[in-house]
Amino acid sequence: MQGLTSGGYTVSSFFNAVHLVVAKALPSNRSLAEYIAIVILLGKLIARLFEHMSTPSTADSLNSHKFPVPLISTSISILACLLCTPDWTLSPLSRATVGFSLTGEKKRKAKLMKERRLNLPSLGLIEAREGINWDVGNCAEPEVFAHMGSMYQNLGNDAQTAHADGAWKRLSVCLTLNLKEGKDEHTMPMKGKPLCKYCRELVENVSKDMCCQTLDMAFLDEESP
Prior knowledge:
The chain is α+β, with helices and mostly antiparallel strands. It has helices at 14-25, 32-53, 106-119, 141-145, 148-161, 197-210, and strands at residues 75-84, 90-100, 169-178, 212-216.
């Protein structure tokens, strides 16, 4: 997959396929508000789809089984990379991508987490912690932060093409949303998921490497994979 360190990306689930398509389809140089609107709409559609598929039907025996919950991602994340002037005024140049938390059984997740570490070496520097019941790299954030380097490289090329000289500052904005919704929640705002301890450490390392500031826009004060 273009833009990843290893160049490899395994498509073995619905969510892998969506990530691949959206990463190529998201428009460039749009406002942060537009990117957030896109991820919210996409998240709502996916949550509605899997809520329906996970509800057993008694009317039709062919549809009487629930969709396997381990195959449903619990979160969706968007990372927007922006260029700012020295006084932090946003330029019109931007890139964004969307990712999901891992799905599947433990063996399958282990294989995909190995691939994530190849695409985002900073993951390998994070050690497991007691009291956290999910593995390093399981969250949605590692999938989007693996694209940060290529997005800023593309932004730099855009700035040169536009002859926009100057000392640019890099600003990244991350927003992770909960994909688990019940029937009564489809008309309500999606719930944000703040960075877990693993992802906070990841963001600190990647931001330092990329010389950028990163903001977490999630608004709930709870941690989950």
